[in-house]
Amino acid sequence: MDSLLVGAALTSAVLHAAWNASVKSSTQPAQAMTAQMLGSAAMALPILLWAGLPAPAAWPWMAASTLLNMGAIASLLRGYRHGGFGVVYPMARASSVLLVLPLAAAIAGEWPGHWGIAGVALVSAAVMMLALGRGKVRSMTRPALVWTLAAGAFTAGYIVCDGQGVRQARSPLAYGCSLAIVNGLLWTGLQQRAGMRLATLATQWPRVLPVAFAAMLSYLLILWVWTLAPIALASALRDTSAVFATVIAITVLKEPFDRSTLFAVALATAGSMLIRLG
Q1: Looking at residues 217-235, what average pLDDT do you find?
Q2: Rounded distance between C-alpha atoms, residue 94 and residue 48, angstroms
Q3: Using CA atoms, how far apart are residues 274 and 232, in angstroms rounded to an integer?
Q4: For residues 118 and 243, what is the distance between their CA atoms, to the nearest angstrom?
C-alpha cells in the first residue's frame, strides 16, 4: 500500500478510537451515540448538496450497509453495558478484522499477498491480546463476549459492503454523506420507537460537534482509502484503532491494564509495516 493510504487509514483509526471512547465515557452512551449520529448527519447534509447523490449502482450496497451498521451499533452499546471500553472495543475490532479477509475474498475477489496476510494476522493477534490480556483485568462476562462478537460480525459485513459500495458510487463524499444521513435518521427513529425522547439529548449537545466531526472524518478517510486499496488490508490498518483505544482507556478512562499491552502494541506496529509491504 502507498504511504499516503497507510497514513490516511491510521488517522482514521485514531479518530475512530477517540469518538468511540467519548461515547463510552458518557453517562448515557445510547443518547451520546444518537446525538453523535444526528450531528454527523447535520454536517453531511450541506456536503451532500454539493457532492450530489452516489451512483445508483451503489444503492444496494448502501442499504445492506445501513442494516448491518444498525446491528453493529446496537450490539456494541449492549457490550459496553457489560464490559469496559478497553476490552469490548478491541475485541469487536479483532473479530471484525478476522472476518473481513475471507469476506473480501469471497465478495470482492481480493486476496492480499503473503506480506499483507501476515500483517493482517499480526494486527489481529495484537488486537486480540489487547482485548483478552491476563487475569481479571481483561476478563469478559458471557453477555459482554456475546454482544462484542455480534458487533464484530456486523462490522465485518458493513465494512465489505462499504468497500464495494464506495467504488460503485464514484465519490467517497457522496457515498459517505448519504450514509451518514440515512444512518443518523434511521438510528434516531429506532431509538424513539424504543422510548428515547429527543429532549433527553439536550445534555449531549455540548460535546457533539467534535465527536461528530471525528466520526465523519474517520469514515470519509477510510472510504477514500478503500477506493484505492484492498478492503482487508485497509481495514486491518484501521483496526489498529484498538491500540489507540487501549491508550485512551488507560490514560483517560483510567481502566486497568497489564504488561501484555506493550507487546500487543509492538505486534500491531509490525503488522502495519507488513501491510505496507503487502
Answers
A1: 90
A2: 32
A3: 13
A4: 18
The cell for 131 is: 482485548
For the cut 50, the answer to whether the pLDDT of residue 166 exceeds it is yes
- How much is the pLDDT for 136? 46
Q: Cβ(217)–Cβ(91) under 8 Å?
A: no
Locus of grid cell 453517562: 27
In this structure, what C-alpha cell is assigned to residue 254? 483510567
Q: Which long-range contacts (CB under 8 A, 24 or more apart) does 186-193 make?
A: 186/66, 186/70, 187/33, 187/34, 187/37, 187/70, 187/73, 188/34, 188/37, 188/38, 190/70, 191/30, 191/34
Q: Which of 97, 70, 91, 89 shows the shortest CA–CA distance to 9?
A: 97
Q: How many helices (H) and strands (E) are present in the chain, helices listed first?
A: 11, 0
pLDDT tens per residue across span 55-106: 999 999 999 999 998 999 889 888 888 877 667 777 787 778 778 878 888 8
Say which residues have a Cβ less than 8 Å from residue 188's Cβ, sequence separation at least 6: 34, 37, 38, 198
79-83, 182-186, 195-199, range with the lowest pLDDT: 195-199
Give CA–CA dist 116/244, Å, rounded. Answer: 21
